[in-house]
Design a protein that fits this description.
Layout: H1 5-15, E1 20-24, E2 27-30, H2 31-47, E3 55-59, H3 64-75, E4 79-82, H4 89-98, E5 101-106, H5 109-116, E6 127-130, H6 136-141, E7 143-144, E8 150-155, E9 176-181, E10 189-194, H7 195-200, H8 216-225, E11 230-233, H9 240-251, E12 255-258, H10 264-269, H11 271-274, E13 278-281, H12 283-297, E14 308-312, H13 318-327, E15 332-339, E16 343-347, E17 349-350, E18 356-358, E19 364-367, E20 373-374, E21 381-385, E22 392-393, H14 397-403, E23 414-422, E24 428-433, E25 437-440, E26 443-446, H15 447-454, E27 460-470, E28 474-483, H16 492-499, E29 511-515, H17 528-539
Parallel strand pairs: 1-12, 3-4, 3-5, 5-6, 6-8, 11-12, 11-13, 13-14, 14-15, 28-29
Antiparallel strand pairs: 1-2, 7-8, 9-10, 10-22, 15-16, 17-18, 18-24, 19-20, 19-21, 21-23, 23-24, 25-26, 27-28
Helix pairs in contact: 1-3, 1-8, 2-3, 12-13
């Protein structure tokens, strides 16, 4: 059988109707109550022309409406399009147009004003749903468009007037789920997942703690026997790791805790109120400010319910993890390895030699440039994901062919550019993204490894590592760093001496560029193009 994500949700809602599904701003919503509201949102979308396979862009921050809109469109077979709300106007135009978005759901006035400038440029757009008050600019922009097209403006609050019935079209499990991933370079790419593959890989078959569920009946039975864990998603829902976590814990019958924005002060202060047990972050960009706040409030805030912090979507340095354990030694820390194009690949651990390693798994292998499997220990190649993988990139057959090739034996794999090698014990050691590999005098340096070392320096709050031209070595390692509040700016020599404690000499930065703020996306992704330009401007 094939799983459909909407049916998965309905199965859980019927199995544990009285459990709290969502906590937002101190208010709780049960599975049963929110399911009825989601039905109404689904009927609202359908009443205004949204149907199966229509793309619907979620131009939203975290909110209850974000969750109901996402699940509502899945109930009618529509396709969600996640939107990075910090994109510039040209980037937004690209993603709305590239995704063929037939509808856009928007809330904040500043977002509405940007959207107003784009409405006439989006040929597939038919409907704009607005949460809250409509700005004058957006109201003026909709209506009749060039070429006779009409764009309708709808008050999202009209969901309350719709039917609560589950009278939706039949589902197959082959429906599309679309995740746009910006990565670190280039325009965003739309990763196409079938619902069934999405359920089996990114959300671990509905059970990341054991065997995957094989039927809706098993899912319903097991969710009743599973405790209701409270899980705070600190990342914005538009991020792949956040959406994976949302569906994973819905499949477990858990309680999701949402904050409007990533605000460490609120997250820490609300742990007792929300009885937070687990927190999802995205690497050091979220981990560092969160642990700083926990350090500041230690002894003042009750952390007794909190037992786990997990990171996904970006490397989480040992130094930040150690600081969490210093606050609460019994915390379980988990660094999840994965990507929008592969889903959940398992836990990445730091071994006794300082290697970032994924234990021996059937989900991954190492291949050479011709996509032949490498089994020889310590031979560097590309990390390939196997099993349930995406259909490809939306409207981009060339990138699809490069990223999702087929091996000679017919196995289709996902190759994203992550470099690594097979360890003697069968596990895979992660070196870093090949596109961020620095070749200095013939030696290869992976940016992530150096960044992890820099994050351990007490005066550095964030860092990116990039190559800069070098007359002798071709490329040199440059560090672009942000200084921690109330810390004294270290010299290059001091940073180099610190890095030599854990890095080979050729990996140590040869230049240091201090900036007011290291640029990242709201989800913590590195902006390497910006960092390279900043480094070259100083070192040229």
């Amino acid at each position: 059988m094939k799983f459909n994500l909407a049916t998965v949700f309905e199965t859980v809602a019927d199995a544990v109707p009285d459990r709290v599904l969502l906590s937002y701003d101190g208010e709780g919503f049960t599975y049963a109550d929110l399911d009825l509201q989601i039905n109404q949102v689904a009927h609202l979308l359908a009443a205004h022309g949204v149907g199966r396979d229509d793309k619907v862009a979620l131009y939203l921050k975290n909110s209850v409406e974000h969750v109901t809109a996402l699940l509502g469109m899945l109930k009618i077979g529509a396709v969600p399009v996640n939107i990075n709300y910090r994109y510039t106007e040209p980037e937004l135009e690209y993603i709305f147009d590239n995704s063929d978005s037939a509808a856009i759901i928007v809330e904040l006035p500043e977002h509405q004003r940007i959207l107003a400038n784009l409405v006439s440029k989006l040929p597939e757009l038919r409907t704009v749903f607005v949460i809250g008050d409509v700005t004058d600019e957006l109201a003026a922009a909709v209506g009749e468009q060039p070429g006779g097209r009409t764009v309708e403006l709808v008050d999202f609050a009209e969901w309350a007037e719709q039917s609560t019935e589950r009278d939706f079209p039949e589902r197959t499990g082959e429906e599309l789920y679309l995740i746009y991933t910006g990565g670190t370079t280039g325009y965003p790419k739309g990763v196409m997942w079938q619902h069934d593959d999405f359920f089996r890989k990114p959300i671990s078959g509905g059970n990341p703690y054991g065997p995957p569920r094989e039927s809706y009946e098993e899912l319903a039975r097991e969710v009743q026997n599973f405790p209701s864990l409270s899980f705070l998603i600190a990342a914005p829902l538009m991020h792949g790791a956040a959406s994976y976590s949302l569906f994973t814990f819905l499949s477990l019958g858990g309680r999701l805790i949402l904050e409007r924005d990533f605000d460490p002060e609120k997250i820490v202060a609300n742990i007792p109120r929300d009885q937070t047990q687990m927190i999802l972050i995205v690497g050091d960009a979220m981990g560092m400010p969160l642990v700083e706040e926990m350090e500041r409030r230690a002894g003042e805030v009750d952390f007794s319910t909190l037992f786990s912090i997990a990171s996904g979507g970006a490397i989480w340095s040992k130094s930040v993890r150690d600081r969490f354990l210093a606050v609460k030694p019994e915390l379980m820390l988990r660094d999840n390895f994965g990507a929008s194009e592969s889903g959940n690949d398992g836990e990445i651990v730091l071994d006794e030699n300082g290697n970032l390693k994924v234990p021996d798994t059937a989900r991954m292998m190492v291949v050479d440039e011709r996509f032949n499997r490498i089994t020889t220990p310590n031979e560097v190649g590309y990390i390939a994901r196997v099993g349930n993988i995406p259909l490809g990139y939306y409207k981009d057959p060339e990138k699809t062919a490069r990223t999702f090739p087929t091996m000679e034996d017919g196995t289709r794999i996902s190759v994203l550019g992550d470099m690594g090698y097979v360890h003697d014990d069968g596990g895979i050691v992660f070196l870093g993204r090949g596109s961020q590999c620095i070749n200095t005098g013939g030696e290869k340096v992976y940016a992530e490894e150096v960044e992890a070392a820099l994050h351990g320096h007490p005066a550095i709050s964030d860092a990116l590592v990039v190559p800069v031209p070098d007359a002798k070595y071709g490329q040199a390692v440059a560090a672009v760093v942000q200084i921690a509040e109330d810390e004294t700016e270290p010299s290059l020599e001091e940073v180099q001496e610190f890095c030599r404690q854990s890095l080979a000499r050729y990996k140590v930065p040869r230049s240091l560029v201090v900036v007011d703020e290291v640029r990242r996306t709201p989800a913590g992704k590195a902006d390497y193009r910006w960092a390279k330009a900043a480094a070259e401007a100083v070192t040229a």
